[in-house]
Amino acid sequence: MAIQQRWLVSVPVATLWTAFDSSRDIDREAVSNPVDLDSWLEKLTYEPRLELCDGNLVQSQVLYGQEVIVLEEKGDWARVIVPDQSSSKDERGYPGWIPKAQLVQKKDWGHDDSKVAVVQKKKAELYSEGQKRELILSYQTVLPVIKVDSEWITVQTPSGESLLKAEDVSVYESMDSVPKGNGKDIVAAGEQFLNLPYLWGGMSSFGYDCSGFSYSMCKANGYIIPRDAHDQAEAGKPVELGALKPGDLLFFAYEEGKGKLHHVGIYYGKGKLLHSPNTGKTIEIIDLKGTIYEKELCAARRYWQEMGE
Description:
Blueprint: E1 5-9, E2 13-17, H1 37-43, H2 46-54, E3 58-63, E4 67-74, E5 77-82, E6 94-99, E7 103-105, E8 116-119, E9 123-127, E10 133-138, E11 142-148, E12 152-157, E13 160-165, E14 169-172, H3 183-191, E15 203-204, E16 207-208, H4 210-219, H5 229-232, E17 237-238, E18 249-253, E19 261-269, E20 272-275, E21 284-287, H6 292-296, E22 297-302
Helix pairs in contact: 3-4
């Protein structure tokens, strides 16, 4: 039965599973509350990590304080959509399943006039009002602001009021007022994650997949784009492959660019690609020339704007 209620993610990163029974015993730390992402990822050696993709177990991830709409409940699980992640799978937002233990209902979440704090460090610690460490939050976690001072930002969280160090966040009037970066800013955002291991479905600084990486680096620069690579390739401004600029998104397809689209990366400039490749690899910058990616390159899109456009 559809119930359509507004809930918030109450763990640093909630994984959006394909079905209520997709998670495995090895995923216990990822479906609990509290989660232990480091422990989970450490246990995910190549084969069980690859199965997240090959077994179609995981769809995406959602960050702390992000809103989801609950459509249905089944045992300990909730079927949700994520309005912040647009998808051709559901016009309302990205669909999937999250453990109910990782969600909390909040009616008084933020206000239209609430400022927001956005985590700008790769990871940031959230503290209790007594300045005791509570959680480790991902890059680009967004929380409503209650009070600002020089050292601490008091924020609203799914569990009450907490503190973030001022040096770890940027405070904006709203998400709509996040400054729009240019292509080089998108590249610079991505460079800080070099050597971070790939994670299928990953949308956090604990691990990104290819389109989660491009989505998050664009978001960090004020551009909200679709979640998946094939949807990202359908939007944005088409760019000729001979007129690429740093920050453009490059798309790759099987059969030397003529088949199914399967990958996205960020053009780094000078013929190089910045991307999160696949399971077993880490975020890297490579020369396109002489690689399979050179043969598979099929399209480019620009989501960023030049000054004055």
